[in-house]
Structure formats: structure tokens, C-alpha cells
Design brief:
The complex is a heterodimer of chains A (79) and B (656).
Chain A lengths: L2 H15 L21 H15 L5 H4 L5 H9 L3
Helix pairs in contact in A: 1-2, 1-4
Chain B lengths: L3 E2 L2 H9 L3 E2 L5 E3 L8 E7 L2 E3 L5 E4 L2 E4 L1 E8 L2 E2 L4 E5 L2 E2 L1 E3 L4 E9 L11 E3 L8 E3 L6 H9 L4 H18 L4 E3 L4 E13 L4 E13 L8 E3 L3 E7 L4 E3 L3 E7 L4 E3 L3 E7 L4 E3 L2 E3 L2 E2 L4 E2 L5 E3 L1 E3 L3 E2 L4 E3 L11 E3 L4 E2 L4 E3 L3 E2 L4 E2 L2 E2 L4 E2 L6 E5 L2 E5 L7 H12 L19 H20 L6 E4 L2 E4 L2 H27 L5 H7 L11 E4 L2 E4 H12 L6 H13 L1 H17 L8 H27 L16 H12 L6 H23 L2
Parallel strand pairs in B: 2-4, 3-5, 4-8, 5-9, 8-10, 8-11, 9-12, 10-13, 11-13, 12-16, 13-17, 17-18, 18-19, 18-20, 19-21, 20-22, 21-23, 22-24, 23-25, 24-26, 24-27, 25-28, 26-29, 27-30, 28-31, 30-33, 31-34, 32-35, 33-36, 34-37, 35-38, 36-39, 37-40, 41-43
Antiparallel strand pairs in B: 1-3, 6-7, 14-15, 40-41, 42-43, 44-45
Helix pairs in contact in B: 3-8, 5-6, 6-10, 6-11, 8-9, 11-13
The chains are: A mainly alpha (79), B alpha/beta (656).
């Protein structure tokens, strides 16, 4: 799966969890500062990525993910 | 103590000093009595006077001990007291070296129990859970009295014991202990006052006991009113507080206009500004802010944010509802809970909640209001800075000192009580996940909503405390038993066990296997435990055996986790437990560190550097808050991770 493809699916999850238009989500958008995610939503995003990609991410490392690009890169290591 | 009649010379000297008695033969004195130290004193009935040959420091000025400008009826006055401008002192024994000054009236009106035995309507404002208060009450006995009303025999037995104790405390004569200081008080009526207590500038104290001693002084300073109360060692009621029908346990502070009625507060609680009604406030209940109304709730290790509010009725049959926040909960600013509801340990409640939920099986949760509905995020509060910081600070903030420590408190963050709930939470999350329609975003569960996406993640996060608990228990067992090698360990470690299904209770501070409490109740009902002292001793005994009970429970949990019986455990199993403990402890530390990062990110600096640019803003922030690397909590976490690695290595070697 290409990195672009992963990014698109990451954005899809973000748009569903944070209830925002997918077009508003930039590649480098920070979940907290740019997209306004709170702590519980950060957890929800991780859960969403896990379900979307059918993976189980390391709990500790998953919390390091701050942006769409971070997420795509990190998730790619599981695919 | 030998007293004698006054001599004629002494009576003449007293009269010369403007002293008066209708019947001087009722006035007895000790040998060495100095009549020159009484001036303008009216003496009524039988009064015994001690010796006055010392000085006392009165507000920093050394003054001769004496009695002046006062009226005294039927009292025994100790040696070297300083009594000045007390309009009416009646029916009291006053201890040595006490100071009584500028008091309107301090008297005992009739034979009474000084607040002991008063029943206060805690937890349920409408009554039905009345708690009889008395000087020796502790959190655990209160917990049983309030919560085990279903066992009529037990409650009746317990109340009979209390009645007996109260009867022994009844007297027509009150006691003011030694080295007590009472100044600027309008009225004290039917109040026993222990040694070294201080009561200053307070309007009214009525019907109560202040338990105080040399090790732990109790104080009432600038309070408005205390009525029907027990105040234990080391506690303070101050600064316009009003207390009515309340029990105030050891080292509790109530002040800054706080108003409390029908409530019991246990060790180290702190209540300022707000209002309490019908609380069973276990140890470390803290409410500091204005507009916080805590009502009809059971708490411990609780922190109420500003404007916290709770309702105990729905305007139907009156105030019959009650709520429970298990230990370590926090309620955010302007949060609201409509009772009845029950919240799991170490959870954070934010927003306003109008549904009735029971999420006691989901410790470490966030309970938030989203679009007017209550939403549960299980395990979220596990990975926040606050929970760990709180658990570290409670033992450090235990102000109790001296030989009498009443409430039994266990500070473990991960205990069989909490872990057994986590195990149930995992089962519930799994069942919900399996049955959930993948297209459904939000599920209903026990009166609250939960996001479907979080079910699997929360279950995974809950594995972390289980692994940490298992490792902690294993290491604690080895260390506490001072086991030298694995042969010693296998010889004794798995000899007894307790089913993992066995229920544990948190008796506002004290963890116990419920079986042990049931046995205690049976012993009371069978007449084997006949008085409160023996019940307290039995509770202390259970508390002291916590590590043993906890280990027994852990053994069965290990069997479940490892899928084999304890007799089959080997070194590899133990090393695996230690490895999992190490990994998850460090993982949890790292997750908390990520939460701590937020305390130093750009959002955190937003209100800093008032007139400067970004550089000034950062510098201002760092000069006030410090840097991440210099923060003591963060350094402590990193140190803990390092020590965890070291300890894991040592423990792995133990099982080589």
C-alpha cells in the first residue's frame, strides 16, 4: 500500500472521529493544535487507525503520533 | 488530690480582692493556694481551686496565673490556670495551665454525652443511614454503619455497643483538658475539650467533643458555629466555617466560610468555601472552591473542582437518592451529577450529567458530557499525569501524627479491589465489542454511552495495570518476606490462595477481601466481638494482613493469566511476569510523560510573556514553570523507569 493511500485512509478516520471535512485535513496538520483533538479523541483516533488498518499499535508509541504524516509513517511500519 | 477548706485569713483576703461567695465553706483549695491570685471573682456552689505560683504566656506576654473578673460555679480548677473575664464558667473540670479569657459563657447545662451518640443523616439526606458519631469513630466503622443497613442484626449490635460507650461518657461535668487555650468565645455549652486544644474568636460551640492531645492539637479558630459535633485530633475548624451535626476526623481542615451539616469527614480532608450536606467523606476528600455543593455522596481521595454540584432528588418523593464516587475521583469545574450514580475509582467527571449510570467497574475513566449526553472513555485517566501525581502525594500529605491513628488507609494505586474491577471491565468491553454492529458509532451501556471504537483499545490499555499489579505483587512478596533465593520462594509462595472471583471492598481507605469483613460481621452477630475496641482491633488485623490477602488473590490471578495451576509455575513464568511488569511500567511512565509534554507545549505558554514576542513568551514560561527537563515529576518518572529496569534485572536474576 502506498504512503499516499495510507494518508488518505488516515484522513478518512480523522474526518470521522473529529467530525470534519476530509478536505480540511492537511498532511502536516497536528491533531491537537490544528485539528483541535482532545485527549480522549486522541485515543479514539488510535482506535480508529487500528480498526481501519486492522493492526494493533504499541500503546506507548501510538501516542507519539501527532500528525497525518506521523500516522501514515507509523502505520506503514505495521503493514 | 487533697483539698482543704479556706482559712479565715484566706477568706478575708479574697473578700478584700472583691471576691464573693454565698457559702465560703463550699470553696476548697489545695495546700499552697494563694488568695492574692484571685481578684473580682464570684464563686458559686462547690468550687475546688489549685495552686497559682507560675506564669503563663498570654498572647506572648508572661503573666501571673490567676483568676480574675470571672464567675465560677461548681468547678474543679487545676493548677496555674489563667482565667480572666469569663462571665460564666459552670460545671467543668479545668486542667492545669489552661487559659480561659474573654468568654461569655462556658457551661454544662445537664447530664449529657458531649456530642457522642448523636445520629447524623449521612449519604441519604432523607435518613435511613443514620451514623451515630463518637470520639473513637473511624472511617471503616462509619462505612459499615452507613452502608450495611441491610444487616439489621449487625447494625443493631453495633449501635448497642455505641450506646454503651456513650452511656459511659455521660456526665453533668464537662472537661477542659490541660494547657487548653480558649479566648474570645461567646458561648460554649456542653462541650468536652481535650488537652492542648485551642479555641479562639469563635461564636458558639454547642454539644460536642474536641479530641486533642499533646501530639496532635485540635483547633477552632475564628469559626462561626459548631453544633452537635465530634472533632478529632489535629483537626481545625476555622475562618467563619459553620458545622452542624458533623463528625470531623483526624487532621481535617474545614475553613474559609465552609458550611457543613449532617456530614462525616475523615482523615486529611480539606473543605473550604463550599457546602456539604449528608456526606460520607472518606479520607482525603478535598473541596477548595466556592459554589461547590457536595450532597448525599460517598467519597474518598476525592477532589472537587470549582462549582461542582450534585442533586440528590428529582422532585418526586423528596431527597432519597445518593451517589458514590469511588476513591481517587475528580470532578471538573462546574461539573454536575444527578444522583443516583456510581463512578469507578480514579475517574474524572467533566460536564453535566443527567442520566443515572453505574460505571464502578470502569476505573481510570473519563466521563464527559458530549452534546448533552454522558460519554465514558475507559482507561483514559490511567495515562494522565494527574492520577499518578495524586497517588504519590496522598501518603506524603498524611498529617496524622502521634500514637493514635484512627482511619485505616491503604495508598496502593493498583490493588485487588481496582484490578478485579478492571478484569470485569475487560469482560464487558469484550462482550460489547463482539455484539456491536460495526456501523454503530456509539453504544449504550449501564446508563452511559461509549464509543464503539474505544472498546478494543480500552481493553488493551487495561492490560497495563494488570501486568504492573502482578509484577508489583510478586516483587513485594519476595521483598517483604526477605526471601533469599528461589527455593525459599517456591517453598512458601503458593501454599495458599484465594479465588480471583472473590470480592474486595474499599471501605473508604482500607482495602479488604469482603470475606474478611463478612467474618467480622458474623463475629459481631454471634457475640464473639463484643465491643467497639475489639471490632477496631479486628479491622486493624485485617488491614495489617493486606499484603498476605493481596498475594493470595494474586496467585489465582496468575493462574488465570498463565493458564496453569500454581503448582506448575516455574522460573520462566516468574521471569515472564517480571518482564511484563517492567515493560508495562515503563510503557505507562512513557505514556504519562507524553501527557506531561502537554504541560510544556505551545498551548501551555499562551498566556505568558505578556508584552513580548515568542522568544520572551518561552523565556517567561520557563522562568515561571521551569523546563520539562527540570520538572521534578518528570525527573521522578524517568528515575522510576531507570529503577524499574534495575529491579527487573535483579528479580530476573533471582529466578535464574
Amino acid at each position: 500500500m502506498s504512503n499516499d493511500n495510507v494518508k488518505e485512509r488516515v484522513k478518512k478516520v480523522i474526518s470521522e472521529v473529529l467530525k470534519m471535512n476530509i478536505d480540511e485535513i492537511g498532511d502536516d496538520a497536528n491533531f491537537i493544535f490544528d485539528l483541535g483533538a482532545d485527549s480522549a479523541q486522541s485515543l479514539e483516533l488510535i482506535a480508529g487507525f487500528e480498526e481501519e488498518f486492522d493492526i494493533e499499535m504499541d500503546e506507548d508509541k501510538a501516542l507519539e503520533i501527532q500528525s497525518v504524516s506521523d500516522a501514515a509513517d507509523f502505520i506503514s511500519t505495521y503493514l | 488530690m487533697c483539698y482543704r477548706n479556706l482559712t479565715q485569713e484566706e477568706i478575708q483576703q479574697l473578700q478584700k480582692n472583691q471576691c464573693w461567695s454565698k457559702n465560703w465553706s463550699g470553696i476548697k483549695v489545695k495546700d499552697g493556694f494563694n488568695p492574692a491570685r484571685l481578684y473580682n471573682v464570684e464563686l458559686y456552689g462547690e468550687v475546688k481551686l489549685g495552686i497559682f505560683d507560675h506564669e503563663l504566656s498570654i498572647n506572648g506576654v508572661m503573666k501571673d496565673t490567676c483568676i480574675k473578673n470571672s464567675s465560677i460555679s461548681n468547678c474543679i480548677i487545676g493548677d496555674n490556670v489563667y482565667i480572666n473575664r469569663v462571665a460564666d464558667l459552670s460545671n467543668y473540670v479545668v486542667g492545669n495551665a489552661s487559659i480561659l479569657e474573654n468568654i461569655g459563657s462556658i457551661h454544662v447545662t445537664e447530664r449529657n454525652s458531649f456530642g457522642n451518640g448523636i445520629e447524623i443523616e449521612v449519604l441519604n439526606e432523607g435518613g435511613g443511614r443514620e451514623l451515630p458519631i463518637f470520639e473513637e469513630l473511624n472511617a471503616q466503622i462509619a462505612y459499615m454503619l452507613v452502608n450495611y443497613q441491610h444487616d439489621h442484626s449487625f447494625i443493631n449490635n453495633l449501635k448497642e455497643m455505641i450506646k454503651k460507650l456513650v452511656k459511659e461518657k455521660k456526665s453533668e461535668i464537662g472537661r477542659i483538658g490541660k494547657q487548653v487555650c480558649i479566648q474570645q468565645v461567646k458561648r460554649i455549652e456542653n462541650v468536652n475539650i481535650g488537652d492542648f486544644a485551642r479555641i479562639i474568636a469563635t461564636d458558639i460551640l454547642c454539644n460536642g467533643t474536641i479530641v486533642s492531645n499533646i501530639e496532635s492539637h485540635a483547633e477552632v479558630i475564628n469559626a462561626r458555629m459548631l453544633k452537635n459535633f465530634i472533632l478529632q485530633e489535629g483537626s481545625r475548624v476555622e475562618n467563619d466555617a459553620q458545622v452542624e451535626n458533623c463528625f470531623i476526623g483526624q487532621c481535617v481542615t474545614i475553613g474559609k466560610q465552609y458550611s457543613a451539616e449532617n456530614s462525616a469527614f475523615f482523615a486529611n480532608s480539606e473543605c473550604f468555601h463550599g457546602e456539604a450536606c449528608s456526606l460520607l467523606a472518606g479520607p482525603y476528600t478535598v473541596t477548595h472552591h466556592k459554589s461547590s455543593l457536595l450532597i448525599a455522596g460517598l467519597f474518598s481521595f476525592y477532589n472537587a473542582g470549582s462549582g461542582t454540584n450534585q442533586s440528590n432528588h428529582m422532585y418526586k418523593l423528596g431527597p432519597l437518592h445518593q451517589g458514590i464516587l469511588e476513591r481517587g475521583c475528580k470532578t471538573g469545574s462546574f461539573s454536575y451529577l444527578l444522583w443516583p450514580s456510581r463512578v469507578g475509582a480514579f475517574s474524572a467527571v467533566m460536564g453535566k450529567h443527567y442520566s443515572h449510570f453505574d460505571v464502578s467497574d470502569f476505573p481510570f475513566s473519563y466521563i464527559e458530557e458530549q452534546d448533552g449526553e454522558s460519554m465514558l472513555t475507559p482507561a483514559m485517566n490511567l495515562i494522565t499525569v494527574g492520577t499518578l501525581r495524586d497517588s504519590q502525594k496522598w501518603p506524603r500529605r498524611d498529617k496524622r501524627k502521634g500514637t493514635v491513628i484512627r482511619d485505616l488507609i491503604n495508598f496502593d494505586l493498583f490493588s485487588p479491589f481496582v484490578i478485579s474491577k478492571i478484569l470485569r471491565a475487560q469482560e464487558k468491553l469484550e462482550t460489547l465489542y463482539e455484539n456491536a454492529n460495526k456501523k454503530v458509532e456509539v453504544l449504550n451501556m449501564e446508563g452511559i454511552k461509549i464509543k464503539r471504537l474505544l472498546l478494543r483499545t480500552a481493553k488493551k490499555y487495561y492490560k497495563i495495570p494488570i501486568n504492573i499489579f502482578l509484577g508489583e505483587q510478586l516483587i513485594r512478596y519476595i521483598e517483604k518476606n526477605e526471601l533469599r533465593d528461589k527455593a525459599d520462594f517456591y517453598k512458601i509462595a503458593f501454599n495458599s490462595k484465594m479465588s480471583v472471583h472473590e470480592k474486595w471492598v474499599d471501605m473508604i481507605g482500607m482495602f479488604a477481601p469482603f470475606r474478611e469483613i463478612e467474618n467480622l460481621i458474623k463475629a459481631v452477630n454471634h457475640g464473639d466481638l463484643k465491643d467497639l475496641d475489639s471490632i477496631t482491633s479486628e479491622l486493624e488485623n485485617i488491614h495489617q494482613h493486606y499484603d498476605q490477602f493481596s498475594w493470595q488473590w494474586t496467585v489465582n490471578l496468575l493462574e488465570k493469566q498463565l493458564g496453569k495451576s500454581a503448582s506448575q509455575f516455574d522460573n520462566e513464568d516468574m521471569k515472564y511476569i517480571i518482564e511484563e511488569w517492567k515493560n508495562d511500567q515503563i510503557k505507562l511512565n512513557n505514556m504519562i510523560l507524553r501527557d506531561a509534554d502537554k504541560e510544556f507545549d505551545e498551548n501551555a505558554t499562551k498566556a505568558y510573556g505578556i508584552d513580548g514576542d515568542d522568544e520572551i513568551r518561552q523565556k517567561d514560561f520557563e522562568s515561571v514553570r521551569g523546563t520539562k527537563n527540570s520538572n521534578s515529576f518528570i525527573k521522578g518518572l524517568l528515575e522510576n523507569s531507570r529503577k524499574t529496569e534495575e529491579k527487573a534485572e535483579r528479580m530476573q536474576a533471582f529466578f535464574l
